[in-house]
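Bumping my old thread because nobody answered last time. Still need a sequence for this structure:
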């Protein structure tokens, strides 16, 4: 029961997180990688690509958490000829 409470709290927290910080982190990664290419520094390019991959991972994790909180998938329509809600 305790795990369910903490999971629902995590879902509540992720549903309130806007997409702007993740997108901003993606832009920062791209700009950093481009700046690294301009100054020919492989470490800066690597940091930029790392930030870009991290932001992509965060986007996938937040999308998965938001999808797990969606209850519309549990309401399945019954096949033709059967009335009610199928489970």
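Sorry it took so long. Here it is:
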């Amino acid at each position: 029961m305790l795990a369910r409470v903490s999971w629902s709290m995590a879902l509540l927290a992720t549903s309130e997180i806007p997409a702007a910080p993740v997108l901003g982190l993606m832009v920062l990664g791209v700009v950093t990688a481009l700046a690294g290419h301009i100054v020919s520094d492989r470490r800066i390019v690597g940091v930029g690509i790392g930030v870009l991959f991290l932001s992509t991972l965060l986007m996938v994790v937040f999308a998965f958490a938001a999808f797990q909180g969606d209850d519309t998938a549990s309401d399945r329509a019954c096949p033709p000829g059967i009335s009610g809600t199928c489970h």
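The longest strand covers residues 76-77. Let me know if any region looks off to you.
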